Amino acid sequence: MSERLVIVGGDAAGMSAAMQARRARRDLEIVVLERGLHTSYSACGIPYLVGGDVDDPDDLVVRRPEEFRERFLIDVRIRHEVTGLDLRSRTVEIRDLARERTYSLGFDQLLLATGASPVRPSIPGIDLPHVHGVQTLDDGIAILREADRRDCQSVVVIGGGYIGLEMAEAFLHWGSEVTVLERSTHVMGTLDPDMASLVEEAMRRHEIDVRTDVVIEGIDEKVVLTSDGPIEADLVILGTGVTPNSSLAADAGLELGAKGAVRVDRRQRASVEGVWAAGDCAESFHLVSRKPVHVALGTVANRQGRVAGINLGGGYATFPGVLGTAVTKLCATEIARTGLNEREATEAGFEFAAVKIESTTRAGYFPGARPIVVKFVAERGTGRLLGAQIVGEEGAAKRIDVVATAIWSGLTVDEMIDLDLSYAPPFSPVWDPVAVAARAASKQIRT
User: Fold this and answer.
1) What is the spatial distance between Cα 365 and Cα 429, in angstroms, rounded to a whole number?
2) Above 70 in pLDDT, residue 285?
3) Which helix (H) or strand (E) holds 277?
4) Is-catalytic flag, 44?
5) Considering the chain, what percentage of its residues have pLDDT values greater than 90?
6) Which residues have a Cβ under 8 Å from the Cβ of 133 and sit 6 or more positions away?
7) By the 8 A CB rule, do 117 and 211 touch?
8) Whether 80 contacts 97, CB under 8 Å
9) How far is CA 243 from CA 23, 63, 282, 421, in A?
10) What is the pLDDT of residue 447?
11) Contact, 125 vs 288, CB < 8 A?
């Protein structure tokens, strides 16, 4: 009998692992169990589907279940929900949602790629049909249908993180009145307050009603009740972050780690032999703080899935860790971050200097030059760059990749000053904003 690999979850991590394992082993039986209707799709594209930048949900799908079955001999079973794991008998309990039946399936190796779910605050009305999280392609399709049905004149987005901002922009395209409610003092909690305030200014410029320090007290059919008064809402979007889908693992006795994610080693192995985890349900390791973290990003899910798949296919691979590098945008405003912000650096025990510089994305005299603000956090003593944040307009955000590469390589801000970065007036000033920030940080750590 051939060896059977069962994968729970059919999106980024699960299907990346399945493909890597199949490339290495044609004899391996691979069964993927997916609760939803879609596999291998871009969840990050959902706000752009809702906003009309993407025309059709199918455009976000990379490969359909039929293609996995026919071309790669991967038995993908959609609308199959795993309800339990028995690690002693090496079986999974499954509910076939289409046929309304249950059955058990044995495994030799098991990969948990169950993803994460939107945080649903415990408030009255949170389960009403016009309240939607944004995690799966099915969620995006449901939001589109509900928005069409309700004509969506007013939309309330609860939470001012990445998804919250992207969904706020999506409904600006609908012509809706958009309100973003954030219980913290600033939106974008991964940024420092001084950089987050730049984002809030941009939101208000685009006529988004952003309210911080707000407590949600309840939701009814047409109104969100808050500590700041009632707010009309035809549709409510949850942008309150996500929590790892780790209850299956916990119930089966697997160890959990950061923020309740499945604890894994550097090869993506869980705490029981033959069980693996990858993606939004699994923890990661932060390369600067040197601590376990939970980072729910598509880039991380794909990379972890690749590592798990190589190992499941008989090879050897390790996942080195994360910096939390991420970008997003709100209309013309681009936002990026990597490494540690000031709060995280303090919690990790670093002594550091933080500097912020203003520049332009092109030579100041060149048409289309747009503002950019770059913030560096650098360790005192060593000068090592710990983190960075960027807020600006067209051409700003992807500069974070240079900074992420520098942090990954352990460069100091002094070394960054003399990086051989490209220059031409249509692309940057002669001193790129990244180099300007490095110079400013170099001076600051010596004072």
Assistant:
1) 9
2) yes
3) strand 275-277
4) yes
5) 96
6) 117, 118, 120, 139, 237, 238
7) no
8) yes
9) 32, 26, 11, 39
10) 76
11) no
